[in-house]
Amino acid sequence: MFLEHKLEEWVRNVTNKMALPLRVELWNGKHFDLSQAPPKVIIKVPQASALSYLLTPSLSNLGSAYVDGKIDIVGKPSEIISIGGELASNTLKQEGKFARIKRSFGRSKAKDAEAIRYHYDVSNDFYKLWLDENMLYSCAYFENGDEDLATAQLKKIDHILTKIRVRPGDKLLDIGCGWGGLVIRAAQKYGAQCIGVTLSENQAELARQRVAEAGLSDKIEIRLQDYRDVTGSFDRITSVGMFEHVGLLNLSSYFSKIRSLLADDGIAMNHGITSTDADSGETPYGGGEFIERYVFPHGELPHIGLVLKTMQEGGLEALDVENLRRHYAKTCGIWAENFEQHALQIQDIAGDRRYRIWRVYLAGCAYAFESDWISLYQVICTKAGRNQADLPWSRKYIYKA
Length: 401
Hints:
- Helices cover 44% and strands 18% of the residues.
- By secondary structure, the chain is α/β, with parallel strands linked by helices.
- The chain has 2 domains: 2-98, SCP2 sterol-binding domain (Nonspecific Lipid-transfer Protein, Chain A, 2-Layer Sandwich), CATH 3.30.1050.10; 109-399, Vaccinia Virus protein VP39 (Rossmann fold, 3-Layer(aba) Sandwich), CATH 3.40.50.
- The strands form 2 sheets. Strands 7-6-5-8-9-11-10 form a 7-stranded mixed β-sheet, sandwiched between helices.
- Helix 3 runs parallel beside helix 11 (287-294), helix 4 (77-91) packs across helix 15 and helix 7 crosses helix 8 (181-190).
- The longest helix has 19 residues, at 352-370.
- It is elongated and about 75 Å long.
- Residues 95-100 have low confidence and may be disordered.
């Protein structure tokens, strides 16, 4: 067969460049090993038409083939993604289709809300199975490196609230509040009056329930609302894992909106994923293409340089920038492990296709952070040009506790 001969040629080319503990098993009983070592990952090809996915093994092609059942892959997710990344980076050129490219989307509030619902309104029970007990779906903070996930997630919130110096009675706005973890902590521990906004109905419903159960309904309001429709003045503003949905062309207006909501002496924090490509291109070798198609519709990641530029254009001054890339690699790795431990329950809730999507996605994110393809930055900011006499002279206050 022509495609089978092409596969044999492809295997020779790959094994001349590297040895991978990978086996390819064909529908007719033949198999090809890409090293002399025992295989850690097995790709099962049930029919000849599926071979084309292997011959151009971008992360998008391999991921799509797996998600759509064109191929099956046996092995630990971390090893599957690692071998897939090695295949892509050693056999594809970062040019043309597989280069880091920028995407442009026609955006609107309705489209943004639809994209958020697609990602977050899977099922609250789905997320409960692999997140920590407080359901914090963003990068944890491993202060010492040996914390369990729940502890590291609470430390993340405290790290943020300490950085922005939340005081009793402060009005705090949390943009993209998720299931309410940050506002609950801000009200309970720091005495803040909080408003949390989200576009996810599932998140809003459970967040309100959790607020009521904590006896904090007098201190916290959860709104199903677009941040662009929020009015008022806030002493503190947080945005955690939300601005990835804003879009590169809208960053200046996003930061301008935050400025308009921030009190003159207020402090804000933006905590979000960034591209490590200097031109704010997407994750290489088809990784970004896969995420856009299956996981985060309309998501775009800016380089930290673009974040700081557009923040200044929006009338905000960056005071402190912290890179938490390896913290997110560790967070995603734990999520992926939790996901595997609850595989059968997740398949029952979400179905096999969505299970496959998220299995690849979580392990892929851990690999992308480890490989420095993407990063995570916390940026503290204030209104540009404000009097800073009330601000600390050093970062010591962040770690004093």
